[in-house]
Design a protein that fits this description.
three-stranded antiparallel beta sheet, alpha+beta, 167 residues
Length: 167
């Protein structure tokens, strides 16, 4: 086995992290159910780094610790651009496509984000639909809303973001 698995326990979610120590790369992260207690957290610098990032103690992670090897250039560009969206702000699928020079690629943006191998670390939850609805999220609307509220995003209605939070 070329990687270690460990758990990062955040306020209302847990992340399972797959980390290749030889390459010093995070291979992927998975969101687990909050009641998942079968994994024991390994205390190490990656775990602490993710916590510091999620709680806003650091603004950006060093992306060199992420493994982008099996991604297309479009996916890499998209995920890297996503890291520029600050806590408490969101953008739309359409605007994110424009920012990487693909003005009409909002469906491709959504499809790529659905395959984000680094949820939370690469904040795909900060991308919403043009009608200000939070849109799809692999772990459901409610979790996406909780994460965005935790980060300071303002909501007008249950699943609709306020224009004040748009980047």
């Amino acid at each position: 086995m070329d990687y270690k698995q460990f758990l990062v326990d955040l306020d209302f979610i847990k992340l399972k992290v797959f980390f290749n120590e030889k390459k010093n790369k995070i291979l992927k992260t998975e969101i687990l159910e909050n009641d998942s207690k079968n994994l024991k957290e390994t205390k190490n610098y990656i775990s602490e780094l993710i916590k510091e990032y999620f709680y806003g103690y650091i603004d950006k992670l060093d992306l060199s610790i992420l493994n982008f090897d099996n991604m297309t250039d479009f996916q890499k560009d998209l995920l890297i651009k996503l890291t520029e969206i600050p806590r408490g702000k969101v953008t739309t699928y359409k605007n994110l496509g424009k920012k990487i020079g693909k003005d009409r690629a909002y469906r491709a943006v959504g499809t790529s984000l659905a395959k984000n191998p680094f949820p939370i670390i690469i904040p795909c939850h900060r991308v919403i639909r043009s009608d200000l609805n939070v849109g799809n999220y692999s772990n459901g609307y409610d979790l996406k809303v909780k994460i965005l509220q935790f980060e300071g995003v303002i909501f007008e209605k249950k699943h609709f973001v306020s224009k004040k939070s748009i980047l």
